[in-house]
Amino acid sequence: MTDYTITRYNPYTDQELIEAVQKYADEHKIKNAASSSFCKWFGISETTIQRHFDTWANFCKAAGLSPRYSRFVNKEDLLNNLEKVWSELGRQPRAKEIKQPLSPISISRYQKVFRKNWYEICLEFISWKSGASVEEIERELRHVPAVESDTQFNHKTNRNISLSIRYDILKRDNFRCVKCGASPALNPGSQLHIDHKLPWSKGGETEEDNLQTLCSDCNLGKSNKT
Ligand SMILES: [Zn+2]
Question: pTM above the 0.70 mark?
């Protein structure tokens, strides 16, 4: 993909930024640094750090410091952080794992901002990544297989697609519909669903090979046909 965004010429190298934050920490006699205060002190925008190091946490790690988050992290910061932790673990994180060194943001901060339990926060995360509403995902998760299909096929797997599997498939498919390429990031309003290629009712299993990411439109066009 061609990137047409015009970036201002950046006079700093990675190393210069690292030395700057180390000097900042020295001067302030701190071991952890907050993005906003450092950037203000050094006279750069926070996006400069993002451009060089992707995240504030990466930057601090490179400088041998611990990242500190302002008291005013918003939901998006928390969801972005959850995505990092989830990717790093390669599975759905447990509540007790949301702490240093894995997560620079604590579980209590999540609970304070979302006012939800950890499972519900993970649900909201999948909703955020897929564009599908929390209610919809919950409905899919609660789906009880019909008695006939239960006995007709000797299923090895559960029909319900857990949050963990959902994330794996979304990620494998680059958070896009495999048919038309729709993605909530590029096409606001589009919703991604995880679909059994061979329907469960026809003996399909809840396995990576039999699952795919589809947007609502492509999903509806498909229904029970394969
Ligand atoms: Zn589609």
Answer: no
